[in-house]
Model the fold of this input.
Amino acid sequence: TTLTGLDQHPGKRRGMKRRQIVTGMAAAAGVAACSSDNADHTAASVSAGETFEWNLVTSWPPGLPGLGVGVENLAERINAASNGRLNIKVYAGGELVPALEVLDAVSRGTVQMGHDSAYYHRGKLPAAQFYTTVPFGQTAHEINAWMYYGGGLELWREMYADVFNVRPFPAGNTGVQMAGWFNKEINSVDDLRGLKMRIPGVGGEVMQRAGASQITVPASEIFTSLQTGAIDAAEWVGPYNDIALGLHKVARYYYYPGWHEMGPMLQCTVNLDAWNSLPPDLQAIVENVCQAINDDMMAEYTWGNAVALEQIKADPNVELRQLPDDVLRLLKSLSEEVIEEMAAEGEWAARIKASFDEFQRIVIPHHEITELAYMNARRL
Ligand code: CA
Done:
């Protein structure tokens, strides 16, 4: 199931060479007639008349901007591109399987497809964390480059095939998140001590080591927890999603940057048996639509976040603040410590961290003189 890194890239797939001719009659019947310039695709052409009805489960509330809507777009695009030969029915979190058991359902073959976050599964597979984000890790640009050209996707597919019998696809990104909503000021590292904060994953572990208490609260309960004072602070995503939960109404300080999630990637997963049952042209459609959604969701977040931030800044009860440098410095060094320990938790984590580190070593010097230098120059 594992090909070389280049083979994974949709543009490099041999399937791209094929020319497909769909007649009006055949399309109406849901049957595609194909001509192939490649002899070994004859079998696929024959099976191209078959239609597939798939279920896709997600971790997201129905209609959630960005994450939820992105998955509905994904299903619609696959349906349209396949001329109805691959129909995907989307289920919101909890409708068919519990929100945090999406990958397990795909792995078991209960459903063919899923959309969630890799790091939800780090309890079972620590290395999965790298395929969402690690604190002080990659921006959305960087994780995409690592995936498609830097060897990240190849390793991911090898690992998921081995551990879950699943094929993963990058399928969305929120971009740089916010550090979160706080009802206590953070002026120095001392202010982290005793802070009760909702912050999941490795980021939460880092905050815990900095002296805070990591509290686990599902998204639906963040608002009430802040309002009642059960927690002092919470991170969710960024302006676009945070304003949808009304968090600006129950917390005073909105801190940035999201050091813990600076380009978290979402994953689409397909059960490998289901994947292998698809003819190559439908496989190419799934591959290409996932890559399109990966890009489209980032664009939606970039715009949605900017518009929502304008609204939040106009609210006299909210103060936008940057975390102090010494706080970020402490969080960065603790993050390195936590990630180092994570890499020691098995062979996959060590291999993947080595690939991640090598990619960062090469890409960061370039981004220093491009993205960063330009962002600084734009402020002059
Ligand atoms: Ca978050």
